[in-house]
Amino acid sequence: MQKSRRIVIKSLLASLLLVSLAISQPKKLKVYISVDMEGIAGVVSDDQLGPGSFEYERFRQFMTKEALAAVNAAKEAGASEILVSDSHGNGENLLIEQFPKDVRIIRSWPRRLGMMAGIDATFDAAIFIGYHSSTNNLKGVRAHTFSSARLTRVALNGTNVTEGAWNAAVAGHFGVPAVMISGDDAAIGEVRSLVGNIEGAEVKNSLSFHSANTMTPEAAQELIAQKVKTALGRLKDFKLYKVKTPVILEMGFKHYRPVEVLTYLKGVERIDSHTIRYVGKDMLEVADFQLFVTSYSFSLEP
User: Thinking of the domain 26-145+163-237, which architecture would CATH place it in?
Assistant: First the structure.
């Protein structure tokens, strides 16, 4: 009887030890960072935004350093795993050799979930660096939504959205809160109006579509690091941004022909001369549709 009692006691002690070890182990913090370029400090025009432009090589350095500021701050805040998404232009802007070796980076297109490729329910927070306002905004440097050449409007359930709000909704689908954004004042204000009072690093003030009052790169990097640390230090304060399902997607086009042709597809409705409506069961389904519409080209064929 005593032997049996000793075995039970040892088993209980072992269980208590395991529970104690589990409690004492710090929770792993996994962070997703999506990086665009229009919202980087100093960016005001095409001169900074694409290969061949005379300031592009300098400004991809600044883009990389703002992303690194977020990465290093996240690590200091306890992040043990970080995934960075190069989400501008050709998706090949970040200088990947400058990142810590334990950071993973998503590059180029096409990819499922676009600017949020690779996110899933294992992440604890989503951070947006270098973001811009929507094509519907009267303010904002280089304001557009997904395609400045094609689209005039993108709406979810009747509400116009920015790329930041759209990406927050994708994150929200997986139970991941958007906690911080950097960019100009218009971009931050617009995202906050939908997503909530997330941390914002305002690295420049919009004066017009091609003009801004901007911080220096070094000052912007310091501000970004500060806001990332603050955001990750109060994760419990942030609510998920989730859109109601089914999700009604509306897309306005600058030209009528894409609208005509897309209406040939089952499930696509033409609601005016330049706008289509598509209903998906959730954010993932409308994200796939949006990515196809904005990405497909005959040039993709061999």
Answer: 3-Layer(aba) Sandwich (3.40)
